[in-house]
User: What shape does this take?
Amino acid sequence: MKLQAVTKYLGIFLSITIALTTGYFYGVRDKYDNKQDNIDIVGPNLAIQNSLSQLQTKDILGFGENNTIKSFGQFYYNIRSDKTTEVLFSFNNVPLSVIQANGKMEKSIPNQLNIDLARKTIDGLSYIYENIGKITFDEPKADGGRNGKFSTVIKPIKTDKELVPSLTSVQRIVFRPIKSEDNNIFKDLDTDIPPVDRDAPAPYFKIKL
Assistant: This one.
């Protein structure tokens, strides 16, 4: 009689244990199945995508020798999931001045420049500028070149329907002097810019988007 009772209670105990264990593992599996997929996407060259995969770059352009346009660094930007945009401007070997090809006129490039986003007006005749900061160049190196970096996060633009990245409507990013007396001696003859800005002093550096 006692053996039957022990067997009965042991059976009940085992049944409860199996039920609890099964329920626990089912819950864990269900929670795991509902988690966001964590998948490594591998490209053709076996490269694994990461947070830097969305990083985009553009050249920072300025006036070089004999009035030619050349690159003076790189612009890096990354659009986040919340539509904000991380930006980094990295300058290399910025000259101390700009000089006309005939050497008759020279103008010092200021050590600090405004960083402005340029958007076309509705009529397309000029730009609307939005300042996002100032870049200050390092002390000149032995060869006279200067380096400089500036980074920030740009908020998105709110439209009637949604938020859009700020750079979506930007045609150029320009680097202009803080004081008008420091304006460039050159004009920007790029036919892609509005006529009003084509007649104004060119920015010392620009980025085409």
In short: The mean pLDDT is 83. The longest strand covers residues 69-79.
